[in-house]
Specification:
Chain lengths: 170, 501, 335
């Protein structure tokens, strides 16, 4: 039984491979919807490219369906089998990145970067060498502040640190 | 003024005397080229007041050195950590990054530097000699011809994914569809923008580049904890200067390859509006087509690295030709140079060579001197730069994410572009995880809108008649070459297989 | 030269909070004070940094700031032919006269005629027009066409391909009006931007091109000008002494300008008439300041095109553009 289970696990899960073509089909359908009433100049390229994409995806689906029918592949909707070897650390790292994007406006570039760097480095390394990581986070965010905000005067979100430093520089 | 060998010799030593401008500009260019989102063009804009204060000659040398070295700088992170600094370096990681992952980062950098420098030197000399004739290229390469040139680049989609062609095509066409987002080129009808005004002008390139390559890579490499496997780490640690010299030798031995791929860059660079991205993809595609070992491309093939690097440096000289000879800038950096020249009262176009030949030819001589000085200043750095690959991904991944997200913000300063880069990162990550080639998606995103633009222009000119695409002699000649390069390799392979049987 | 200070982006970012990547100037607005202005004035520029609008803005505000006694802080919001900048200005900034927009009345107003924005176009007012750059018809130096008559007579035989930076542009309207008047057939081909339009003419891919004449003057000998869409060719020799359309063909076409002016929320004008009054008065003073010519020339402007206009002139031009846009709407939208 366990041998059978292992064997089954080796088989590729076609559902994972379907994500990109499904995304392509959904997006193309939406795109077509936006150009229905448009002049021909807006349509010609998309209709050519989109139709070819539909055609290739259909071929791909047929091929995969065939593979599942012949028991050469599986089709299962299970989180860890959808994207092979997607681990908890990776999921956590992606969530931290989303958090960084959401909080960068609230906290300002520098503080958000320090928090993001420190928390993600700690997550990826299970909390070892915390002092080094903290120092490195501050240094890298500092380099970012000097290069992006001071030298290139980029309009990055500003928060407590930027405003305090600005007052200080004045 | 007599334009003879003596004149050029004097000009050479004169430009060499400006080394104190060239060398700092080279290092500045390396940095801004390497950070995605920054480029020679926006750095020159930021430093414009300094440039205005400089003597016109010094200002031009500064801009030229910055321009050339930023091209080279963009290739460094592309090779070491799979982050092309600009769209012009998007073809560099195809073979450069696999080399670095095999522990040959130092060698790959050396190959990239030498092919860039050689390509740059060669095309500068050719540009100097053939300027008046090369400037005519723009008179023949119109929309119809450019449609075919774009197809040369796009046909790469089929060849980058040799393992699974159907998946390669899906990735490429998804990229082309994403590249079609934005207002249509004629009537400005918004298409597929999901209501975001930020997408009216199409998908911004840097967020796409950063997301598909860098962010997805940062998510991927944390699985292993290192860019390199354990035995490769040892290899990089033990690497000596010999690795750099070996890279130099490997490239010099392929001087002919460097030569013809850089010429592709020069010719494409001369066409107003074309640019380095298309040049490097076309050069890579051609290099692969004429290679005896096309199956090794994408796995760390030396010529696969030489081709895009030689070509994008060839573009540098190319984009300046229409500005100098005709007075029309060939690209963004050339356009800014034009502003500076006009500010200083220097004529652009034909008048430049009669009124100020020292400046007209001087610009190209400055380029020659920059490439020459780069060989002494940058090449030795390859040994130290390659050590970046030894840094644990525990540190590198978060730093890559933080810096590249900001890089995607810089060109337009919209938070939207940061979210977009992340979105492309997730798309790239899923693609990699499920066996789709991110480079194929990117080729679609970069070249798709260009193809559409040229195709619509041709169709609009002909009143919607599609036969216009086969109406020019040069265009038909290019079509024939395109078909030949697509069919010949597989025909030759079949023939070879038959004879082996 | 010293006016262009070393620190290019002189804006001091006090109090510019960013939300959604878009600065909300009004977020920190204080109640109306007697001493207007008591802080910097934000100016939205709906084009890229380093472009013509940016340079003109810096030249003008380098004088205006002395008369207003405050700094003007630019924020660049390029995209969708200016649409992004206007949407940000109208949607995100408080109408308190502490924020302005520095737009190009020609192409940007034509945009509204082609596709209405999300706000009411009467909810903002243009004032302090700084320049007027008329559109023109030009050919590459090697073109076979020598005069506008050659173009018109050829256009009567076959549809000529006309390069333009984009369809909703005053110069495009000009050539469509010429076609309507003479019966010549012109097929407009948008080439995305002035640089490509000049290239389209020079490389002879297009039969001829139309563009704002400032860009054509910069191309110098690479191009020859044939016709100007204004009442007078104020550039004279710089535009090859080309005739104007109204003079030569006896038409009554309004001037087809690219015209940069400041814009302000109408609500701000209604709520703070004193502030608006001050902005107008000081703006006029800045324009008449002897230092302005110097700053304008240094920004690579063509002095004959510096042309002040008040609220009335701006309103007339805005409505002329809307009217012309409406008239040629089918040709501009393909519908």
């Amino acid at each position: 039984m366990s041998e059978k289970k292992t064997q089954k696990n080796i088989k590729p899960n076609v559902l994972g491979e379907m994500i990109i073509p499904l995304f392509g089909i959904l997006f193309t359908s939406y795109y077509f919807f936006t150009i229905i009433d448009s002049p021909w100049t807006a349509q010609v390229n998309a209709f050519i490219v989109g139709s070819i994409l539909f055609l290739i995806c259909t071929l791909f689906f047929i091929r995969k369906f065939h593979a599942v029918r012949l028991n050469r592949a599986v089709c299962m909707l299970k989180y860890d089998r959808l994207l092979p070897a997607m681990r908890t650390r990776q999921t956590g790292f992606i969530i931290l990145t989303i958090g960084y994007l959401l909080f960068v406006e609230l906290l300002g570039y520098t503080l958000a970067t320090i928090i993001f760097l420190f928390s993600s480095m700690s997550l990826l390394d299970s909390g070892r060498k915390m002092a080094t990581k903290f120092a490195l986070s501050i240094i890298m965010a500092g380099v970012g502040y000097v290069v992006f905000i001071l030298l290139f005067e980029t309009r990055l979100p500003e928060g407590f640190i930027e405003k305090t430093l600005q007052e200080g520089l004045k | 003024m007599i334009i003879d060998a003596n004149f050029f010799l004097e000009l050479f030593f004169h430009q060499l005397g400006l080394w104190w401008v060239v060398i700092p500009s080279i290092f500045l260019g390396l940095i801004v080229g390497g950070i995605p989102g920054f480029s020679a063009a926006n750095t020159i804009i930021v430093l414009l007041p300094f440039t205005f204060l400089m003597e016109v000659e010094v200002g031009l040398v500064f801009m030229i050195a910055l321009y050339c070295s930023s091209r080279l700088g963009a290739g460094i992170p592309a090779i070491l950590v799979n982050i092309p600094g600009t769209a012009g370096a998007a073809a560099t990681p195809l073979d450069g990054y696999p080399m670095a992952k095999q522990g040959f980062g130092q060698r790959a950098l050396s190959i990239s530097f030498v092919s860039s420098i050689l390509g740059g030197l060669l095309t500068t000399v050719i540009a100097l000699i053939t300027m008046p004739w090369l400037a005519r290229v723009g008179f023949y390469m119109h929309s119809v011809e450019m449609v075919v040139v774009m197809l040369f680049g796009i046909s790469l989609i089929a060849s980058v994914a040799t393992k699974d062609t159907i998946k390669g095509l899906i990735a490429g066409f998804v990229g082309l569809m994403i590249g079609s987002i934005g207002a249509d080129h004629v009537y400005a009808t918004p298409r597929g923008t999901m209501g975001f005004l930020e997408l009216y002008d199409g998908v911004p390139l840097i967020p796409a580049l950063v997301g598909l390559f860098a962010i997805s890579e940062a998510f991927m490499v944390i699985e292993s904890g290192s860019f390199l496997s354990k035995d490769r780490v040892q290899q990089v640690q033990n690497a000596s200067w010999a690795e750099t010299f070996y890279g130099v030798r490997l490239t010099l031995r392929r001087w002919f390859h460097v030569g013809w791929t850089s010429l592709i860059g020069l010719v494409i660079g001369v066409i107003p509006g074309a640019g380095a991205a298309i040049a490097s993809f076309v050069a890579y595609q051609q290099s692969r087509t004429f290679s005896k070992t096309p199956e090794a491309y994408g796995k760390g093939h030396i010529e696969g690295l030489i081709a895009p690097e030689a070509a994008n440096n060839g573009v540098t000289a190319g984009t300046l030709i229409p500005l100098m000879v005709l007075g029309i800038p060939g690209g963004a950096t050339a356009a800014i140079m034009m502003v500076v020249m006009q500010y200083q009262g220097v004529p652009t176009g034909p008048g430049l060579f009669t009124e100020r030949p020292d400046l007209g030819y001087g610009v190209f001589m400055a380029m020659f001197v920059t490439y020459l000085l780069m060989s002494f200043t940058i090449l030795p750095m390859s040994r130290y730069m390659s050590r970046v690959t030894l840094v644990s991904t525990v540190y590198m991944s978060p730093i890559i994410i933080a810096f590249t997200l900001v890089g995607s913000f810089v060109p337009r300063e919209y938070m939207f572009d940061m979210y977009l880069a992340f979105g492309f990162g997730v798309l790239g990550y899923i693609a990699r995880k499920t066996g789709y080639h991110v480079a194929a998606i990117l080729i679609g995103v970069i070249l798709g809108p260009l193809l559409e633009q040229y195709m619509l222009r041709a169709l609009k000119m002909s009143g919607g008649d599609a036969t216009v695409l086969f109406s020019s002699t040069l265009g038909n000649f290019l079509w024939a070459i395109l078909v030949a390069t697509l069919i010949l390799p597989s025909w030759l392979n079949k023939k070879k297989a038959k004879s082996e049987q | 030269m010293t006016k262009l200070t070393m620190k290019r982006r002189s804006f001091i970012k006090t109090g510019a909070a960013a939300a959604g990547g878009l600065m909300i100037g009004g977020g920190l607005a204080t109640p109306a004070l007697a001493s207007y202005p008591d802080r910097n004035i934000d100016v939205i520029i709906p084009t890229r940094e380093g472009g013509g609008a940016d340079r003109l803005f810096r030249a003008f505000t380098s004088l205006w700031k002395n008369h207003m006694n405050t700094n003007f802080e630019p924020g660049f919001f390029p995209g969708a032919s200016g649409r992004v900048g206007y949407e940000v200005y109208m949607g995100k900034y408080k109408p308190d006269a502490y924020s302005l927009i520095f737009g190009n009345m020609g192409p940007e107003v034509l945009n509204w005629a082609v596709k209405a924005p999300s706000f009411n176009i009467d909810d903002y007012i243009y004032f302090n027009r700084v320049d007027t750059d008329p559109g023109c018809v030009f050919v590459g130096a090697e073109s076979k066409f020598k005069t506008i008559d050659d173009i018109v007579s050829e256009g009567k035989k076959r549809a000529l391909n006309v390069g333009t930076s984009r369809l909703a542009h005053p110069a495009s309207i000009g050539i469509l009006a010429l076609g309507e008047h003479t019966g010549a057939k012109f097929n407009l081909v948008p080439l995305s931007g002035g640089k490509n339009t000049v290239a389209g003419a020079v490389t002879l891919e297009m039969d001829f091109c139309v563009l704002t004449s400032g860009s054509v003057i910069k191309a110098a000998d690479a191009c020859r000008t044939m016709l100007v869409f204004n009442d007078k060719n104020v550039a004279g020799e710089k535009l090859d002494n080309a005739p104007t359309m109204n003079d030569y063909f006896g038409t009554k076409l309004p001037a087809m300008f690219s015209a940069r002016a400041f814009g302000i929320h109408k609500a701000a004008v209604d709520a703070h008439p004193d502030r608006f009054e001050m902005l107008q008065k000081t703006g006029k003073k800045a324009f008449d300041d002897p230092g302005f010519k110097d700053a304008f020339l240094k920004s690579k402007g063509f002095w004959p095109y510096a042309n002040y206009g008040g609220v009335k002139e701006c309103a007339e031009f805005k409505s002329a553009m809307l009217e012309m846009g409406e008239r040629f709407k089918p040709l501009l939208t393909g519908k």
